[in-house]
Specification:
This protein has 101 residues and is mainly alpha-helical. The chain has helices spanning 5-18, 30-45, 63-75. The protein is elongated.
Length: 101
């Protein structure tokens, strides 16, 4: 594409007058500033020091003993059901089985 000489002179003039060294301090990150402001406000509302609680030895659970108790409870004999068959009742509206043959 060929440009007229006046357009080239105008473009070169604009580039010469507007070019300068980049200074990042001219830019301001508004998102970062707002986030820091919110965090400082939250931090001011928090108590100065959170009291530490020492763990007590009374609340310690032996996992092996708990597992043994659980297994012993599972093995305990269950009371007999009323139906006697031990199978759950279907209520008469169970899924029908297809006959093969």
């Amino acid at each position: 594409m060929k440009l007229p000489p006046e357009m080239m002179k105008l473009a070169q003039h604009i580039i010469r007058t507007k070019s300068a060294d980049f200074d990042p301090s001219m830019l301001k990150d508004h998102y970062h500033s707002a986030l820091v402001r919110i965090l400082r406000k939250k931090q001011a509302k928090r108590p100065a020091k959170i009291p530490t609680v020492k763990p007590s030895r009374e609340n310690v659970v032996n996992l092996m003993d708990a597992l043994r108790r659980s297994l012993a409870a599972e093995r305990a004999p269950k009371p007999a059901t009323r139906g006697g068959s031990g199978k759950p009742a279907t209520g008469g509206r169970g899924a029908r089985q297809r006959r093969t043959g």
